[in-house]
Amino acid sequence: MPATPQPDHRRRRRTRALLATAAGIATVGALAVALPASAGETTSKPGGHSKPSRYQDVQLLSFNDLHGNLEPPSGSSGRVTELQADGTTKTIDAGGVEYLATHLREARKENPYSITAAGGDMVGASPLISGLFHDEPTIEALNGLELDVTSVGNHEFDEGATELARMQNGGCHPVDGCYVEGEKFSGADFPYLAANVLNEKTNKPILKPYWVWKKNGVKIGFIGVTLEDTPGVVSAEGVKGLKFKDEVETINKYAKELERQGVKSVVALIHEGGLPASSAYNFDCDAAGGGSGISGPIVDIAKNITPKVDALVTGHTHSAYACTIDDPSGKPRTVTSAAAFGRLYTDTTLTYDRWTGDIARTAVSSANHVVTRTVAKAADMTELIAKWNTLAAPIGNRAIGFISGDITNVGTESPMGDLIADAQLAYGKELDPETDLALMNPGGIRAGLTYAAKGSEGDGVVTYAEGFTVQPFSNTVNLQDFTGAQLISVLQEQVSGTNAASPKVLQVSSGLTYTLDLTKTGAERVVTDSVKLNGAAIDPAATYRVATNSFLAGGGDGFTTLGQGTNDLVGTDDLAALADYLTANSTATTPIAPPAANRITIVQ
Question: What pTM, to 2 d.p., does this model score?
Fold first, then answer.
């Protein structure tokens, strides 16, 4: 039996500043009941001595899917929806690590027993200020936020397991080297947990599977996993040499191991999530009872994880919820997610029973809180952002094009998706004039383009930094040949197979049109006789030259047919294709207008 991983990671704890008061938000899913003694109090003994009470409240602060968003996200990515008492909603500007640091530090002030944990995707798909430097800036920020522990997410594997190990252990990038003269990247002060990610050769986890937090006799174990389907949403190169095990089996295995080592209070950090019935962060998904206000993969996972686990911190779906879902014994268990991009954090109270060493589950309460921008900025985070922005400025501030309005990344077919597909088609025709169409996966589009200036560049100017935020993955644009029958199969794979329950609708270039009938099920949702290219029906026997990114060309996102193309030709990276398209097709006086997003007819 391996020894319990100890908190041997480096600590550079800083004195917590007294900062402006964070805004309190109504508690969701509270399950408080009377306890024999007030949690966190002490009891007196004869002679004036005191001893800890039976129950000790432990604060668990958590967030997920930061994706390197150090600066406040723009547009809809930087807002949250709040449900009002009268049933209406309002939006609130949120996010930015300068504000997140302030909120977390304020929340900890009156809580000597406080842990900060995360649910994966801290890095990857990051804006230029972090992504340009292989996310070293985000790790530095997380150290400053005093993060204690996180699970890995799928995006932690964007650059492969070797680079993830560098994020943990430090060292300068093997190709780009050190970014600041005389300053070596020191790595994460917190452990990354990867219980279900195994090295194919050794069959052992590539990083620690669990970690135990200890204070004054209180012990809480954390098990970290990512979604089993990580290979389906990451490039093949990123997960080479790895295998990903079932989330439930893995968590149950290590919960037993922790119990054998005397750790009976356990929190699972799971990079997989759910979909609440409302987009409002303070929606009460327990109102109907039994967690019926949430759906998605996390529901079945939560229902099957052993009752030995007391709370689940989740992620991946970028949704906000603080729910309870019954465990296999029928006992309610807290399941939370704090949306994405640092716009929210979750505050959960775990009431620890010193007599049993377990969490008094019925006393657990949890709520999401907005990372408002009305509090003071944390000076250390402002300094960190300024440092990396100075290094990024020569590249990031370069203008690559002009737009006449917001080009949003919203909807089944989005204007941003259409623009990217058109850019890849144009680039494909430069490589091979026979290129017919382009397809873009929606998950590869991380943001839209905002008309209002973020800096001094002026309204409508698109900078390289903004383009990088939209397409940060450094995929290449690949050309492949497919038959018309295969092309129809690709469209059907959007809504069938692994994508049946949660469709992944590809963004299509100008000239390709078809109808998607969502009143039907499975592959039948694609109306095959409606699929046309430049007005002509697709010929099943004809050959079509298709541009995609390298992720799709490898069969990613469940598009197995796209992994069967022939006559491959690999081009430049996809961001360069977008930048070249914007530069060639727009000027300050003739900006690009937002595409109409009318290539796919949706029947609902």
Answer: 0.86
